[in-house]
Amino acid sequence: MGQVELKSIHKSFGPTAVLDDINLKIADKEFVVVVGPSGCGKSTLLRVVAGLEEASSGALLFDGRAVNALSPGERNVAMVFQNYALYPHLSVATNIGFGLRRAAMSRREKREAVERTARLLEIEPLLKRRPGALSGGQRQRVAMGRAIIRNPAVFLFDEPLSNLDARLRMQMRSEIRGLHSKLPTTTLYVTHDQVEAMTMADRVVVMNAGRIEQIGTPSQIYDTPRTTFVARFMGMPSMNMISARYDGDALVLPDARVPVPADWPERLGPWVGRALLLGLRPEHLSLRASPGGVPATVDLTEPTGSETLVYLHHGDTRLAARTPPDTRLRRGDQVHLDLRLDRATLFDPDTALALPTLPADPSKTGETV
Amino acid sequence: MADQSAHPAKDPLARIAAPAITSADATPVRQRRAGAAARILSGPLPWLLPALGVLGLFYLYPIFEAVRLAFTDARLFDTETQLSMRSISSMVGSSTLGVILRNTLTYTVASVVGQIALGLAIALLVMRAERARLRGTLALRTIVLAAWVIPAIANGIIWQLLFSEAPFGAINSALRLMGVAPVAWLSDPSNAMTSAVIATIWQGTAYSMILLYAALKTIDPALYEAAAIDNARPWERFWFITLPHLRAALVVNAILILIMTLNMFDTILALTGGGPGRATEILSLYAYGTVFQNFELGRGAALSMLLLVISLGLTVVLIALLPRDRR
Ligand SMILES: Nc1ncnc2c1ncn2[C@@H]1O[C@H](COP(=O)(O)OP(=O)(O)OP(=O)(O)O)[C@@H](O)[C@H]1O
Ligand SMILES: [Mg+2]
Questions:
Q1: Which residues constitute the domain of residue B99?
Q2: A72 closest CB neighbour out of B220, B228, B240
Q3: Domain for residue B164, yes or no?
Q4: What is the ipTM of this complex?
Q5: Residue A233: CA atoms inside 13 Å, Cβ hemisphere, count?
Q6: The domain that contains B283 carries what CATH number?
Q7: A57 alpha carbon to ligand 1 midpoint, in Å?
Q8: Does B225 sit within 8 Å of A85, measured CB to CB?
Q9: Residue B212 included in any domain
Q10: Cβ distance A248 to A308 under 8 Å?
Q11: Ligand 1 proximity of A13 Cβ (cutoff 6 Å)
């Protein structure tokens, strides 16, 4: 019913390529979040799927059928825009029911459909108002209502929550997810907010400069980033990147030698003596009570209540560590860190790609969903 | 340096002393007596006075003077005038006035509707072309606007040449080339009004176009995208998005064009002179002729009053059409 496939989609505006060889297959009812920095082409990708932009080349298939030549209205997609794009001169009820104008339904059925949708989104009392008389969160719901009511094959969201305050954003995040489980529909959701990506997606697509960097479940993206870009972009604070060299039985850091897990020598054979980037999430650095491990100097601590983020440096390398809430450290304190190398990702500094051999054993990556 | 130390903000002592210095400068007696005057002076009135003065001198006074003249039997070169209702009663009783008012109605409604419709059409076309990233939209806008820059009297002369029934008449020449019989544009009383309306629309369209184009520019393009996804037909987009958004601009545009058209007489003066017969004589032209050809100043003033009342009445009607929040 709602399978979407993009086959080597390219899009350029004049000489500038905005989408470069995009390949993506979205299963029916799947919730896919596209995330990436500003200007990487997320909106353009969404607009190509919607039919608001024409792909320069490549094929777009809905359920195996090419839809490149169809107009947006013929594609049976619904879109929620960043600024909602509600029709300002129509009432909320008319806005929601707008997509039913040509549906084969009686007036009464249409009105009931509008009321049902409004009830689902808890905006029944607003039906007579104009969009101008609504709050941001209410407009958001009306925009969703307008999309839902048509029962489309595909939902498209373009940063729908970016105009809301933090609390409302969190609430709408779970509401959209809840809606998706109530009305399972193929969804392509664009955001630059990695928290939205991690919390909402069945699968995440990380984009950078018009290309797809990685596609995977949130935990795959988080635990086994394929490129340094993904590693840095996803996660807050982002993944620590430490220049290192493997000398055969230990990792040589700027100012320390760290023994490696038992299975590394076998896998890292070809990398002996070569420069590497050691990627470690902040939660995989821990403070040691006793000397040893990796020495570092504290720059800043950020207690958040549930944990304390400690920013440090080791040589020239800046590091972040997630520590228990009772950590008491001050700027300039010398500490020693334990690195959980079994959770590390190693990158080739020349290609910025993760080493294909590590981690090889999926059970080691700890699929925590 | 000395200046700086005396500055109130710099020197705490000066700051304390400052109010005392000010009140010592002003004459205390006048200040106490003129409490109310001071309040008025500190309000908006002093700032509005210059504008009120100019408006009063150049707009209100002539209107007042015209009203006064309407109640006299003044003639243009006759200083002896006396109060009289003769101007007004002869105007109301005249059989010509009916013809003139009917002409005015036809001419004004056709011109206003034509200018708005054509201006809107061109503005939509330009927007459309810009959205399709076509080139030449700036040139198009400039050309349309060029018509607006031509003085109305010159416009009348240009159209007189175009409509001319002599062998060099441009439109008739073109018709002849296409094998169509020439048309008596200006000499046939039943065609002359159409010709006058065409000439007026041609010139006034630019104004509507620019005004409506500016209003169209303020519509969020995402609305049209949302409508495209909702599978809205072009007329639905126009009806549900464009037209409601343009409502205020259309009404304001209509008011301005209405007033300009009601007062327009130079184009017609140059084109037909109001003829043939009285076929294209509208109220403004009639008032002009009454004063400057028949020298009946009092009657002309009465006719101008009638024009003013009609303008005001129609404007009030149009303002009622404005969206509530724009009134
Ligand atoms: N109509 C256009 N003409 C020319 N360039 C465009 C056009 N639309 C987008 N671009 C360019 O394409 C690139 C990608 O734009 P896009 O809107 O897809 O980015 P985005 O990832 O959605 O960014 P953001 O997070 O800021 O919304 C940008 O560099 C932008 O300048
Ligand atoms: Mg965007």
A1: 95-326
A2: B228
A3: yes
A4: 0.83
A5: 28
A6: 1.10.3720.10
A7: 18
A8: yes
A9: yes
A10: no
A11: yes
